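Give me the fold.
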Amino acid sequence: MIDLNNHKLELDYPCSWSYKIVIKHEHNGNKIAKEILEERTYTVTKSKVSSKGKFKSYNLELEVHSDEDRTSIHKLLGDHQHIKMVV
């Protein structure tokens, strides 16, 4: 089995990057993305709803300009109070 923790992701920046966010059903993925990304250009699309309807997921796609940009957005998403998981 390959341990991916020992390998650095090599990307040519800028590039398009997708995040999947999972939130509780009462919150809005578009509103959360706007709060975090402000004036950046991005696309949010609904993905799935959990079997019991407690959670829903969204795909968030935007152009990232560097590894630091990509990882900082992941951290901002993960730190948001209404986001339960970022993949």
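DSSP finds two helices and four strands in the chain.
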